Amino acid sequence: MKLCLQFCWNIENQESFTNSSELEHITEEYNKKSNSLYTILRSSRLAGSQRAPFLRRFLLRLNFNSFFEATARGVLNVVRPRPALPVLNPQ
Asked: Mind telling me which residue stretches traverse the membrane in this protein (predicted)?
């Protein structure tokens, strides 16, 4: 939450130029912390616990589109092929 507030403050208080180094720092910290949270939630100890079903649901919702899984694996830059569009024959 602190990083989100820092980001918002930087955006709201920017002048004619953006402080790219500060935004890069916020981005780097966010990526570290979100990957750490994802790794903790994916741990086998936590996944096997019957006392934390809400954490498993949170993990499922957090990673609904596999974004965090791909980021944690470091394959975020992999481009998935687009489905081919059908060819229409003009008549």
From this structure: none
Q: How many domains does the chain have?
A: 1
For 40-59, what is the mean pLDDT?
79
pTM of the full structure: 0.62
Give me the domain span that covers residue 47. Answer: 1-12+20-72
Is residue 55 in some structural domain? yes
Phi, psi of 18 (to 5 degrees): -100, 145
Structure-token pair, residue 59: 């993990």
Q: Is the pLDDT of residue 23 over 80?
A: yes
